[in-house]
Amino acid sequence: MFSIGELSRRTKVKVPTIRYYEEMGLLAEAERTSGNQRRYDHAGLERLSFIRHARDLGFSIESILSLIELQEHPDRSCQAATEIATSQLMDVRAKIKRLRALEKELVRMSKGCDGDGVSEDCYVLASLADHTLCDHEH
Amino acid sequence: MFSIGELSRRTKVKVPTIRYYEEMGLLAEAERTSGNQRRYDHAGLERLSFIRHARDLGFSIESILSLIELQEHPDRSCQAATEIATSQLMDVRAKIKRLRALEKELVRMSKGCDGDGVSEDCYVLASLADHTLCDHEH
DNA sequence: CCTTGAACCTCTAGTCACTAGAGAATGTAG
DNA sequence: CTACATTCTCTAGTGACTAGAGGTTCAAGG
Fold this sequence. Notes:
The structure is a homodimer.
Chain A lengths: L3 H8 L3 H9 L7 E2 L5 E2 L2 H15 L4 H12 L4 H37 L9 H7 L9
Antiparallel strand pairs in A: 1-2
Chain A binds a DNA duplex through helix 2.
């Protein structure tokens, strides 16, 4: 049995965040000492590691709640869990696609100013003001 | 001169968002009719287009405030503006890198379950529970 | 046993960039 | 002049935390 601070150290999840997860129902309410302090065991550690890993992968609290529910009803859970993971993957891919378009435009913008001459007008500001300078839509 | 609704239609920025931008100091306080309704002109339209474009590119409100300030003091503004754009570019690239790692792991996770056999345990849930299954760190 | 000080408790409020809704006033078309 | 869409201000909610106040408890050293 160990304290919330120890759990925090082992999982790299900050103390207030652990309490927040408990409040959100991701973590079961922890046992308490006679003095009302939380105590955790190995199961609590594993659960929190699971949550942290899922958050690192960009799953929302809501998705994680679903995944935890699935863990507790193992019958036919695999398909549903895979669906959640796949939807998360679609999400990530959409974000990558969008960011790549942004990258392209930012590169073009940043390059404009420091050419070989002195530019009268700032290319960055001009680019932002005039959308028609973009070679893609967003 | 046109209303906030008209401005909203032309820029695709929602009405409450326009008011929010005004409150944040991104937009100058609009002229008002005798009945206290906001009226905009072409300059207002351009300013809002600029803001929307910058937001689309992921610039924070704070960065946009800086860019607007630079617009108003055109002397030596180019270098500073380019710095902001470059920092934004670094940011976007870091995000892309991270998302690509996530993509990789999610692909691996999602593939686990629907192989040719029937898996006893859900690979998605197992992957999340056991970080050592990852082939990269995050 | 007692003290010290780190760690813990609850609670409220703040972050960012909006979004939603209430309730009242205004603008415009027929 | 009457509908009724639009606008106004204000407050509160979103997601996933983070920060701080003010008070209590735990563990180690004397």
